[in-house]
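Retro notes
What went well: the complex prediction finally ran end to end.
Inputs used:
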Amino acid sequence: MNLFDFIAGHYDYWFIIILLAIGLYGMTVKKNLVKKLIGMTIFQAAVILFYISSAIKADATVPIIMENLPVDNPANYINPLPHALMLTAIVVGVATVGVAFALLILIYKNYKTLDENELLELMK
Amino acid sequence: MIEKNLPAIIPLLFLFASLIIPLLGVWKKNLAYPIATLTALASAILSLYGFVFVILTGPINYYFGGWIPPIGIEYVYDHLSSFVVLVINFVALFVIAYSYQPVEKELPGKQTAYYSVVMLLLTGFNGMIITGDLFNLYVFIEISSLASYALIGVGDKKAPFAAFKYLIIGTIGASFYLLGIGYLYFMSGTLNMNDLYNILPHMNDSPTIIVALILIVVGLGIKMAIFPMHGWLPDSYTHAPSSSSALIAPIGTKVGAYAMIRLLYFVFGLNYFSQELAVSDLIAIFSSAGIIFGSILAIAQKEMKRMLAYSSVAQIGYIGLGIGLANPFGFIGAVLHLLNHAFMKATLFMVAGSIIMKEGHSDIFKFDDTYRKKYPWTMAAFTVAALSMVGLPPLAGFFSKWYLALGTIENSSWLFLAVILISSLLNAVYFFRILEKVYMKSPEASAAKEEIKRNEIQFSMLIPILVLAIGLIVLGILNFIIVEHIYKMMPEGML
Amino acid sequence: MKHGSSSPIILLLSRVLSPYIMLFGMYVIFHGHYSPGGGFQGGALLASSIILIRIAMEEKVHQLHFNKAYGIPLGAVGVLIFFGVGFIALIMGGHFLDYGLLPFPGIITAELRFYGILLIEVGVGLAVMTILVSIYDNLLEEDDDESI
């Protein structure tokens, strides 16, 4: 396929790759610990977006039973399993951010700074 | 009814205890330790019963909610998972029984919260071992990881930063694993391990499966701490409280190794990852580098817990080498070393915790031979564990290195054989240094005239250490029985 | 926060909005088993209604609204509801979360599975709400000498 189809046909995968790269950049390059945490959250959001973008089918509707639509053909409804899996993954991400904030408050109470270079100096 | 529901009861017992402890802690604070120990004891007895039951009757497959796989979530309780569950629960029982005094000294007043998080950690580990569904494995990886970040972060002044580093690296590892199983789900449409094993040979030439394999190996390798991805381990194990590092160090990386064995051998299949791709060679090379790196850096350390952490990196390298060899002796060596290293590291970390409690420090250069008179039984257990780590027969550590060496000879990889032998010598250097300081009389100590009295640690800390040390001798002598059972755990097509 | 907000607009609007957000959260929980919604989403909405009051009002008022000592025990009760429903199914002879065997008389098996998920979602919603509120409380505990 030509280059235009390669880029525009898979535009959702390109968005996910850009989000993964931004997340990894934030985690490795930025010096503030809170910015590293935000980079990790962006990385997890990209993985969640990847699962949800796989559930779509062409010309399909939401998987809720309504009275006037027949339920015999499963090609009419999008796949609800990745959505249910990603609910669990989002809750796991929220819990991780909660634990991370508690650890950051302990670090701030002990060292009075949240910058990585200053912390490595103070911990020698 | 107990036998039919055994795969569900063992993790759920720990979850139930983790919920009861805060509720009863509102009423009476010091009920946390008895409930935790009783739950660990009940789980250890149930896993022993389950292990014997699986040997006599065969594997149990358990469907949650009554939905048949591949629609539902399946728990697979076969020979390998019942064996690893038995090892994990047995070691955890003794470490929890040991931990009453250290928790009271280092974390006063936080007993309820500590034991509740310990029960959650063990729920996560048990669930990771028994499950047969790929996404359920991710959920339990995250449950156990969050509990271990919390248990590590309450240590000394540098502990929260070490736990934060572990949090970032561990979450990235779990996200890589999630992305990998996402690729597998899109190509095959199922998340069940058995079903995927039947479907994957039909789609061998797809680059998606190759990328999924690499992502899963990197993700689980971070959890297991194979060589380039071990960076979180030394700081976390050093600055954690004594009872946390005694609990997480013997068990945590082993469960990651079990997940790697389960995914590589039982989902992707032996042919795929060792003959068609060179992933097994890559794992073996990185593990060997980790063995040498860990052993050399352990010699350079001054503090005992940090030395034991680098030693853990080296020992995980042995298990990785066994996985990467992909032949029967390598498999036996890996599973046997999983069992032996859990016992050895638990003993060593418990001894380090006792020395910190009694002396206030764990600096190796301040050890002197008064320890031989003050803590005779503790140092005896340390000697047994140290000799077993070096690999002297008839202790347990010799036999796992023997089978690994046989595995490398069968593959004709002489470089890995040299790595195993050299690293045993390096292990001897850093362990014998401590033994020399404790047992040999130093020249200037003869000037001390005062009487050194015996100041042994309490029974609640001493008995678990002694039981695990005697267990090392027993496991060494009876290892041929264990190896006979490991033959039944191998995947089809290996023998 | 320790001191309430000084602007009357925030004080009035938070007190007006919070009950409606709570009602919407209950709606989302109870519609989880046949339309979008469920335990996690409804629990987060309920938690946001409680945290809105905590941001706007002073400490005496918001402790009357939801006392912070109830946080973790109620969370444990929520997960115990989940665990208890599964355990009852285990005792009645089935597998762990097999809702078709719950002991309610006169309802056929398919409808029992339909309503069994509702019981689980209530437990999950309670747990999520109390845990999110207690995360907020614990993060603000150290906040002694800074006034916001």
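What we learned: The first helix of chain C runs from residue 8 to 30.
What to try next: split runs per interface for comparison.
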